[in-house]
Each structure stands twice: as C-alpha cells, then as structure tokens.
Amino acid sequence: MITSVKGMRDLLPPDTRVWNRLEETARNVFSLYGYDEIRTPVLEPTELFVRSVGEASDIVHKEMYAFTDRGGRDVSLRPENTAGVARAYVEHQMPQAGGVKKLYYVGPQYRYERPQKGRYREFRQIGAEVLGAADPATDAELLVMLFDLFTRLGFTGLSVSLNSVGSEESRPAYVEALRAYLAAHEGTMGEDDRRRLRDNPLRVLDTKDPALAAALAGAPRVLDHLDPESKAHHEELLALLDAAGIPYRVEPRLVRGLDYYTRTVFEVTAQGLGAQDALLGGGRYDRLVSDLGGPRTPGIGFAIGEDRLVDVLPEPFRRAAIEGFAPVAVVAIDPADRAAALALAGELRSAGVAVDLDPAGKGPGHALKNAAKRGCRTAVLVGEKERQSGVVVVKDLVERSQREVPIGDLPRTLKGETP
Ligand code: AMP
C-alpha cells in the first residue's frame, strides 16, 4: 500500500464541504472590502524566500522544501504566500499602475516541520495583502475585515494580540539593547536560541524554552524603543480599533518569525488548538517590495492557517456546511426504470435540484440505505407505476415518511416550495 507523504494529508468528504464553505465565506467577505484574488505558483525561486522571509528565519534555515530542478534552477515549494504576492506585484509592474492594490489568496504552503496536531508539512492558508498604503487606517480596516470574517463564521470571544516592531531605522538600537540583555543568558541557552541570538536576537523572544521565556520578562520592550513615527502609527491604530470595537491586547513580546515585518505585527490564537494555537498571523512589511527590487512600497497582510481554523470552527457553521450538501436521491425501482430515472434526474438538475442518481440497481431498499449514508435526505422512487401515473413517491429519509407528488410539481417540492 502506498500512503501519503509524512505530514501531508488527504481532505475527504464530508469535511471538504466545510473547507469549501469556509473558503466561499472568506471570498465573499474579501470581495465586500474590495479585495481581488491572486494565484501565484507553488514553486518559486529559493532566492525569493531567502531575500524576504530571511536567511536566519527557522523557515528558510531548516524548513524549506528546496531543491534543484532538472534545469539546474534552485527552487522551493512556497513556505508562505506573501513573498510570492510581492514578487508578482513587482514583476507585473503593479506599483507603476499606481494606487492601492488589495489582494487575497487561498492555497497550500509547505514547511518541513515536525508534524503534530495542527502542524503539517502541507497546510493551507487564506491570506490578504494591501500594497501601497502606509496609513494606520489600512491596518485597522484589515483587522476589521478579519473580525467581520470570524463573526460570520460564528466565532465570539476572539481577540487579536498586537505589537509594533518599529521601523528598519529604529530596530538596530532595540536589537542592540536586547542583545546586551540576552548576553547574560547565553550560557544556559539551547543551540537554537544561541543561533537566533547570533543571527537575529528578535527571534529569541519567540523561544520555546520555558526558562528562557521566564527570563525574558525583564527584557527591554520594543515598544519602548520606537521611533516617533512608528509610535504615532501604533497609537493611531489602537485608537481606530477602539473606535471600531475590535478587541485587542498589546503584547510587547510579539515579534513574529519572519524577517520582513515593520511596525504593526499581530496574531490571533484560539483555545482548543493545543500547543499549535496560533490561528493566524500578520503584519506590516514596508520594506519587502523594495527588498525584492521594486519601488519602496508599504504593505500589510495576514495569513490564516486554514487547517487550524477548520479544527475550531463553531459547530453551527460546520453543521450547516455538512447538512447543506443534500442531493436528492433518484432511485430506479427496477432495471427497466433506469432510462426514466436518468431522464427525471436530468429534468430536476435543469431546474436546479442537485441529484444523486443511484447507479447500483440493487433494488430500492439497498439504494435508499446507501443514499442516506451519502448524505441524501430525500429520495424519489421511479417505477413502472410512477411512469404510468406521472405521480412519484417522495421519501423523507430522515423522518422516514413519504408522500406522492405529481412529476410536474417535483422541482418546486424538492426545493422546499410546496405547490
Ligand atoms: P506564518 O506564515 O508562520 O505567520 O503562519 C500563519 C498561520 O499559518 C499560523 O498562524 C498557522 O495558523 C498557520 N501555519 C503555519 N505553519 C503551519 C503548519 N506547519 N501547519 C499548519 N498550519 C500552519
């Protein structure tokens, strides 16, 4: 038996109904805010992630599916999608077209991490990016959109953790202060944290080591080292979120694991996810586009971990998605009735009724049991008598009741509009 690659999973029905409805809801919400979809390749030049996500990040350092293709190109499966969006933005001269670009994406990402619940090597993200807008009002509206989506999914009680990591100009002074503070703890650090301290001390704030995390309580805070513009940006954002009623918590130690963030960074965690409790992350990246060879262009975005979101979706949303899929079973009572059943199925589909035509021909009892298992809630039986009379039997498979309906009235009856 051949099984799927470690850390990669099949998404099966009926769960795929939930995934589809979730993506549909996200697309609808994004459209309401004027976002357009972008689809970028799964495979990108490795250099793209080295220059954007950063050489010293865990992702580029040890989690990329990087290889040389048959033409000798160094390529990687994308570990995230913001870099690809920024690359496309520059490559297709979108900055020159002027104005603000609002883009969203839905798709698989790849990281060679140690698989566990909520952490996979192939996982999916739903994300949105705004390019060309530096104003804190952009940050605020992005978060308003996120909460709009979560509200429509049925979530209550979520709150966003928020911080500012300052500008590229103010960062070095903070990094030095942090490095000086951390130097005293270097002796007790594990190998990973020592590497982070050497390459990018900000990363140490993300440490998984509880003793070091406790020692970080006294570390200098990036919020105390902001340049005046970043500080004003942060305060204006908080004021706008207050005004919009978006629940947030300022989290001075939140820095996020990717190199390209400037100013605003945020994360939403959810209970019920276990150790991997980050539902989404995002932030501002005012340097990314210019790092990729484009003109200096501010940007901000987020990425929702779709696999994790599906795991904590409120039950009513999940149930509606699963039960919303309920094709009508059309069952031929006898092999001689197959042509009539096929024709009836065609008529119903033309009228917009989803039909699951029983293919088995093993008799109505067998067919009805199977239809219920496949998610049908109603069945229409077609036999010799029905063909003669033009009246068919409609069975409610859940309530186990039945009634007779003239064939002409079927579409309306099945769509819930009783004639
Ligand atoms: P990041 O791109 O690292 O900021 O991640 C954004 C979101 O993607 C996280 O908050 C997670 O929900 C999700 N995510 C990241 N890595 C994984 C993974 N290996 N498996 C599943 N979800 C992930």
Low-confidence stretches: none
Query: How many structural domains can be distinguished in the coordinates?
Result: 2
Shape: elongated
The largest pleated sheet is described as:
8 strands, mixed
Q: Which structural class best describes the helix and strand composition?
A: alpha+beta
- Which percent range fits the helix content? 25-40%
| Average pLDDT for all residues | 93
Verbal overview:
Strands 1-5-6-11-10-9-7-8 form an eight-stranded mixed β-sheet, with helices on both faces. A five-stranded mixed β-sheet has the order 13-12-14-15-16, with helices on both faces. The two termini are 53 Å apart. A hairpin with an 8-residue loop joins strand 9 (262-269) and strand 10 (278-284). With 419 residues, the chain is an alpha+beta fold. Helix 1 (15-32) runs antiparallel to helix 6 (136-152). The chain has two domains: 15-170 and 226-319, BirA Bifunctional Protein, domain 2 (2-Layer Sandwich); 326-414, Rossmann fold, CATH 3.40.50. The radius of gyration is 27 Å and the shape is elongated. The relative contact order is 0.12. The model has no long low-confidence stretch (mean pLDDT 93). It is built from 17 helices and 16 strands. It is 39% helix and 21% strand. It has helices spanning 15-32, 46-54, 58-63, 82-91, 94-97, 136-152, 171-183, 191-199, 210-215, 228-244, 288-291, 306-312, 315-323, 338-350, 364-373, 384-389, 410-414; strands at 36-37, 43-45, 66-68, 74-77, 101-110, 122-131, 160-164, 248-250, 262-269, 278-284, 299-305, 328-332, 355-357, 378-382, 391-396, 401-406. The structure holds adenosine monophosphate (AMP).
